[in-house]
Design goal:
This protein is mostly helical. It contains 14 helices and two strands. The longest helix is centred in the N-terminal third of the chain and has 35 residues. The chain starts with a helix and ends in a 9-residue tail after the last helix.
Length: 298
């Protein structure tokens, strides 16, 4: 390497040094520490010298824990319903906001604003909306429908949280909107000349051309859905009758309420493996349905 190349490398590492320090201090080192703790018993309140190695006992207990399976059931059910629901809703809204009409920038701002409201604040708002006499049930009452106490009924609590999630799809919507704006107008013009209708243009042009955007949003949705926590913690605390006992909420309970940090670390690594598996599954499937402009398939 020449002196110029060495100097450029030093500058480059200097610019990313803070990021590297953060990566090691707040990500890699805590991950290694949690992996060690998953084979230990520690109540987190006492010092590090009280950590007791117990081998694989934490994992053995987990797979005989009924609440572990309940937390998995709730989390998987939430993911199976919310991921396609949010993606379809986000794409539909993005397509509406991609129209060329007056005040469209204002409409885009209105739809995006809820996503930047702090999660705790929006959760408090939705607790009022989903109450027995909340605004949602008042609206249903006008239609002659008696709505339930959404967050107090085991059959509806999870669906209430899913419904609330529509409030925060602004980020996903904006990403879809950027993907839609990258589709060339000449493709639509050519298809119109060939006699294609709106549905054919959507399925034959729009979806293939924005498939990389769909892929990105799907990966992010899988990761975030499995890590769902704050809304359930603030609004239901896992109730009623464990109907909203999400995996992350159960992990938090074990770590910071029951002070079983080793057990919680084992739970965290199991979730890491689950998220990694489904993320890799989505990425592996991308070769069959994701189209890039430099590919020879569509």
């Amino acid at each position: 390497m020449t002196n110029l190349e060495r100097r450029q490398n030093r500058y480059g590492y200097g610019f990313i040094m803070l990021w590297l320090i953060g990566l090691f201090a707040f990500t890699l080192i805590p991950m290694v520490f949690s992996l060690v703790l998953s084979f230990c018993k520690w109540d987190i309140v006492t010092g590090l010298n009280t950590i007791e190695f117990i081998g694989g006992q934490n994992f053995t207990k987990i797979f005989s824990d009924k609440k572990f399976y309940k937390a998995l059931e709730v989390t998987f059910k939430f993911c199976l319903i919310s991921i396609p629901f949010y993606q379809i809703a986000s794409l539909m809204i993005a397509m509406l906001l991609n129209m060329r009409i007056r005040f469209m920038r204002t409409f885009r701002l209105i739809f995006f604003l809820p996503s930047i409201i702090p999660t705790v604040a929006s959760s408090m708002i939705w607790m009022q909306l989903l109450g027995k006499n909340g605004l949602l049930n008042q609206g249903l009452k006008l239609l002659g429908i008696t709505g339930p106490a959404w967050l107090d009924t085991p059959q509806t609590a999870l669906y209430g949280l899913i419904l609330m999630g529509v409030w925060g799809i602004g980020n996903t919507m904006i990403i879809y909107l950027s993907g839609l704006q990258g589709v060339g107008e000449e493709l639509y013009e050519a298809s119109s000349i060939d006699g294609a209708n709106a549905f054919q243009r959507f399925f034959k042009i729009t979806l293939p051309m924005i498939s990389p955007t769909i892929f990105f949003n799907m990966v992010m949705a899988v990761i975030s859905s499995f890590q769902y926590f704050t809304q359930a913690f603030v609004m239901t605390e896992g109730g009623p009758l464990n109907s909203t006992l999400f995996y992350n909420l159960y992990l938090y309970t074990k770590a910071y309420k029951e002070l079983k940090m080793g057990y919680a670390s084992a739970l965290a690594w199991i979730m890491f493996i689950i998220i990694m598996f489904f993320t890799m599954l989505v990425m592996k499937s991308s070769s069959f349905w994701v189209y890039y402009s430099n590919d020879d398939k569509i």
